[in-house]
Write a structure and sequence with these properties.
Blueprint: E1 3-8, H1 12-22, E2 27-34, H2 39-46, E3 51-53, H3 59-64, E4 71-72, H4 73-78, E5 82-85, H5 91-102, E6 106-108, E7 119-121, H6 123-126, E8 135-138, H7 141-156, E9 159-169, E10 185-186, H8 193-198, E11 207-214, E12 220-228, H9 235-243, E13 248-251, H10 260-269, E14 280-283, E15 287-290, E16 293-300, H11 307-317, H12 324-335
Parallel strand pairs: 1-2, 1-5, 2-3, 3-4, 5-6, 6-8, 7-8, 9-11, 13-14
Antiparallel strand pairs: 9-12, 10-11, 12-16, 15-16
Bound molecules: nicotinamide-adenine-dinucleotide.
Length: 340
C-alpha cells in the first residue's frame, strides 16, 4: 500500500519532509502547498511535486511568475490520505478546520501547542501512542533531541532528576529577520518550555530546562546533567547506550570534531541532502558518568532532526508498520541515518 501524503507549507521543514516522503517505499507526495511564488516554489516543481496554493495565496501571483499550479489546498486534501502541516508557528491551529472538513488526518509541527492534538510524538519515545490517531504533533527540534535521549536513559538506567541548558541557535541559515548577531540572550522564562514539552511524551520524567540564544545558525547544543537511578559501570557504558541507538551519532576523540562547524562539515562531506544531520550528535569525550551523575553534551541540527520523526508519525497514525522499530528501520535506511 502506498499512502498519498500532502505537505502544507514548503519552507525549512516542509521541503525536507517532502523529499523524505518521496524516498519511502510506502508513501508518495501528492502535492505541496505554498502561499507565494519563490525560488522554493520553483524547486518544488523542478522536483516533480504538484504545487498547490495555500493560505491567503493567489493563483494569479503564481501565474505571473509562470509557475504551474495544480489547485488550492482544499483540492490537494481531496487527493491525500494524510497531510503534514509545516506552516509557521501557530498557523497549524488556523488550518485545523480545513483538515477536519476534508476528513484528513494531520501531522503538525512543534510550533503548535500540545492541546491542539491527541498525541505529541517522538518515534523512540512513544511511537505506539500515535497508532490510529488523527491529530499528532511532532515535537520541536530541541524537544525531539531531549526526548530521544530520554528514551535511552529512562530505559537503560532510569532517571531521578535531569537538568539541561539548551544553547539555541539564533536563526536558520536562510533566515535574515532574526538575531542576535552579537550577544548572548538568556531566555527569561524560567524554567524554559523545553522540559515541559518533553513531558508531553514522558509525563513522569523529572526534567527541568533553561535556555540561552547565541549568534549562530549552526545547530543547538544541550548541556545535560542527569541523576540516574542506576549508576553506569563507567562513562563507556553510558556512551555505548547512545552509540547503539540508531538516531545517535557518536564522534570519537580522534575525529577532532570540536563543535557544530565540524558536524555540519561532516554532514556535507558524507553527502547528506542539504548537509543535514538528522541524528542526535554525541561526543566520545562529551559523555561522562561519576556514580549516579551523568554529564553529556548533545548537538541538534534544528533544520532536519524532526524529519525522520514526521515519517514515523505518518506510519504510526496510518498503521503502516507493526511497531516503531520496524518503521524506524525503513526510515533510517531510506534517509541514510546511522551511517558511520
Ligand atoms: P518556514 O517559515 O521556513 O516555512 C513555512 C512555510 O509555510 C513558508 O514557505 C511559508 O511561506 C508557508 N506558509 C505560511 N503560511 C502558510 C499557510 N497558511 N499555508 C501554507 N503555507 C504557508 O518555517 P519552518 O521553520 O519550516 O517551521 C515550520 C514548523 O516547523 C513550525 O511549527 C516550526 O516551529 C517547526 N519547526 C521548525 C524548526 C526549524 O528550526 N526551522 C525545527 C523544528 C520544528
Amino acid at each position: 500500500m502506498v499512502v498519498r501524503v500532502a505537505i502544507n507549507g514548503y519552507g525549512t521543514i516542509g521541503k525536507r519532509v517532502a523529499d523524505a516522503v518521496a524516498k519511502q517505499p510506502d508513501m508518495k507526495v501528492v502535492g505541496v502547498a505554498k502561499t507565494r511564488p519563490s525560488f522554493e516554489a520553483r524547486a518544488a516543481i523542478d522536483r516533480g511535486f504538484p504545487l498547490f496554493v495555500g493560505g491567503d495565496g493567489r493563483m494569479a501571483d503564481f501565474g505571473a511568475a509562470s509557475l504551474p499550479v495544480a489547485g488550492t489546498v482544499a483540492e490537494m486534501l481531496e487527493i491525500a490520505d494524510i497531510v503534514v502541516d509545516a506552516t509557521p508557528d501557530k498557523r497549524g491551529r488556523e488550518n485545523a478546520g480545513l483538515y477536519d472538513a476534508a476528513k484528513v488526518p494531520v501531522v503538525f509541527q512543534g510550533g503548535e501547542r500540545s492541546d491542539l492534538v491527541e498525541v505529541s510524538f517522538n518515534a523512540l519515545g512513544n511511537y505506539a501512542a500515535a497508532k490510529g490517531k488523527r491529530r499528532v504533533r511532532v515535537v520541536s527540534c530541541n524537544t525531539t533531541g531531549l526526548a530521544r535521549a530520554a528514551a535511552v536513559l529512562t530505559r537503560k538506567f532510569g532517571v531521578d532528576q535531569w537538568e539541561a541548558t539548551v544553547v539555541r541557535r539564533a536563526a536558520d541559515p536562510s533566515d535574515t529577520a532574526r538575531g542576535p548577531i552579537n550577544g548572548i540572550l538568556p531566555t527569561f522564562k524560567l524554567p524554559s518550555h523545553h522540559g515541559v514539552d518533553v513531558k508531553s511524551i514522558f509525563p513522569d520524567l523529572a526534567i527541568t530546562t533553561t535556555a540561552v540564544v547565541v549568534p549562530t545558525t549552526l545547530m543547538h547544543v544541550h548541556v545535560n546533567h542527569v541523576r540516574l537511578t542506576r549508576a553506569p559501570r563507567d562513562s563507556k557504558e553510558l556512551l555505548e547506550a547512545f552509540r547503539t541507538t540508531h538516531r545517535f551519532h557518536v564522534f570519537e576523540d580522534w575525529e577532532r570534531v570540536e563543535g557544530t562547524p565540524q558536524i555540519m562539515e561532516f554532514a556535507r562531506d558524507r553527502g547528506s541532502p542539504r548537509g543535514d544531520m538528522m541524528e542526535n550528535v554525541v561526543w566520545e569525550h562529551g559523555v561522562k558518568s561519576e556514580g549516579n551523575d551523568a554529564y553529556f553534551f548533545q548537538g541538534n541540527h534544528q533544520e532536519s532532526i524532526v524529519v525522520p520523526e514526521n515519517i514515523d508519525a505518518i506510519r504510526a497514525m496510518l498503521e503502516l508498520a507493526p511497531d516503531g522499530a520496524a518503521s524506524m528501520a525503513i526510515t533510517d535506511k531510506t534517509l541514510g541515518i546511522g551511517r558511520g
